[in-house]
Amino acid sequence: MVFSLIQVLSGILLTYTYTPDMMEAWNFSPNLAQEVVIEGSHPSLLFTLLIGLISVTIAYFISKRYINNH
């Protein structure tokens, strides 16, 4: 429990103090892929997409219920 609390607090602190280097990001941008190709019909890919769809649906209905109750 203490370790988890320390991890969360250090993550918050590091996120708060992080400042990105924009010039370095632009230097890396030409090396990035210009498109993403998703191919194959592996059951794991379909399962992952299904889990994502279910998660988004649950989040949507929870947010609608929360907004309607307040």
UniProtKB/TrEMBL annotation:
InterPro entries: Di-haem_cyt_TM (IPR016174). Keywords: Membrane, Transmembrane, Transmembrane helix. The chain crosses the membrane at residues 41-62. This is Uncharacterized protein. The lineage of its organism: Bacteria, Bacillati, Bacillota, Bacilli, Bacillales.
